[in-house]
Amino acid sequence: MAGFLVPPGSMCSQLSAIPGLTIAFPNSSSYAATQNDFWTLQEASLHPACIAQPTETQHVADLISAIVSHDTPFAIKGGGHAPSAGWANIENAITIDMGGLSTISVNGDASVASIGAGARWLDVYTFLDPLNRTVAGGRNGAVGVGGLTLGGGVSYFSPQVGFTCDTVVNFQVVLASGEVVNANSTENPDLFRALKGGVNDFGVVTRFDFVTLPVGEISGGSVVNDIEHRHAVFKAFANIADAPDYDIHASIVTSVVFSSISKTWTLSSTSIYTTPDLNPPVYKELFAVPSISKSIHLTTLHDFANETALPQNDILFYTSTYGVSAHLLDELFDICNASVHASQVSGGVTWLLTFEPLPSAIVAHGDDQHFGNSLGTSPKDGNSMILLLTVVWSDTSSSASVEAEAASLLSKMDQAARNRKLDRRFRYANYANPSQKPIHSYGAANREFLNKVANRYDRKGIFQKLVPGGFKLEN
């Protein structure tokens, strides 16, 4: 095949010679299992020439050495939860499914958890909960450890300890050369910092070592309100998110959801408190708003994170970060409401506006130029809130029109924030659309740093050129 030193099919046959490594070929059950495991139709619609399924770090090292030596493009699949086509899969080339690297262990006093890059967060919480320990991982248990962490990671525990990446004490990484190295505060410290937000631009992480924190029962559940009460809910959300002394045990996600089939809005808030307190003062204003239902209860992290799997659909993300304002939330809803009623998609389309706090309490943990993260956030930015715009539909023939409408909608919302002088630079990579280039939002200094690190550990730009998925440094 033009452009490849060795055609992908032939490359797959060569990879089969790696001792102990499973290579799944099209029409096999193991190939289908990986394809069916992707979250979205966009990713599942791609058909790799084969899927490599390593179960140990040496397999990954051998894979990278072989693939790179033959100049073959490849993709890296962790949990497969990124919506965009090509982020964790690839057409007619090699997909590396990291799901077999999913072992979890702790050190002697359980202060550090070592987690394989292919594990899911539900696996992690199920292992750690009986030890009364946890890590600041993803909120949806189906999400993979690797992708969320390398993109930053927002957790129920982030107000206590920072982004998920801030709690990593060591990365085990396979470099483009096939060499296996550790990156931590003393070994390869520049790579250590770069990986905290630098997504998949530096190597293949095979293991993460996280600091754990104590946990017992937590309080969590949903509060559903009539859309007519949205201003009161938005006001309560804003007062939580912009509190001068943010309650570090509080984690709230507020969403408005529109169904083009029923032409109705749903308003709900997932309210977590990381201690067993069913009525913490921080939620008093929110809980006082008349509700349709309220399911706050005591639970464990692994039970709460065990969300029901959904069938594959077409899904897209967009994100922005804004200053906190109930009036801006009202305006963003009005902008969306004026647009989505016109959506005409066979089978229907669902629009979701989701807001979550990004208080200074979170970003302060990674604000260190030597051992912090590479996200470019700072307490100087003040309390902020992250928007996730999600669109879900099943008629792939409508994708172009849905994507254009979503881009237009985000542009209008961003302009509304600029008009109020509430726009913020940061774009959270795990929620970003491919067009958004979140690494640019990290700022010039961080971008320069990331490029220097990439030039040191990946001189030939393998992860820029042969791994098309993900956000690239030069983009």
Automatic annotation (TrEMBL):
<dbReference type="InterPro" id="IPR050416">
    <property type="entry name" value="FAD-linked_Oxidoreductase"/>
</dbReference>
<dbReference type="InterPro" id="IPR016169">
    <property type="entry name" value="FAD-bd_PCMH_sub2"/>
</dbReference>
<dbReference type="InterPro" id="IPR036318">
    <property type="entry name" value="FAD-bd_PCMH-like_sf"/>
</dbReference>
<dbReference type="GO" id="GO:0071949">
    <property type="term" value="F:FAD binding"/>
</dbReference>
<feature type="domain" description="FAD-binding PCMH-type">
    <location>
        <begin position="44"/>
        <end position="215"/>
    </location>
</feature>
<dbReference type="Pfam" id="PF01565">
    <property type="entry name" value="FAD_binding_4"/>
</dbReference>
<dbReference type="GO" id="GO:0016491">
    <property type="term" value="F:oxidoreductase activity"/>
</dbReference>
<comment type="similarity">
    <text>Belongs to the oxygen-dependent FAD-linked oxidoreductase family.</text>
</comment>
<keyword id="KW-0285">Flavoprotein</keyword>
<keyword id="KW-0274">FAD</keyword>
<keyword id="KW-0560">Oxidoreductase</keyword>
<dbReference type="InterPro" id="IPR006094">
    <property type="entry name" value="Oxid_FAD_bind_N"/>
</dbReference>
<dbReference type="InterPro" id="IPR016166">
    <property type="entry name" value="FAD-bd_PCMH"/>
</dbReference>
<protein>
    <recommendedName>
        <fullName>FAD-binding PCMH-type domain-containing protein</fullName>
    </recommendedName>
</protein>
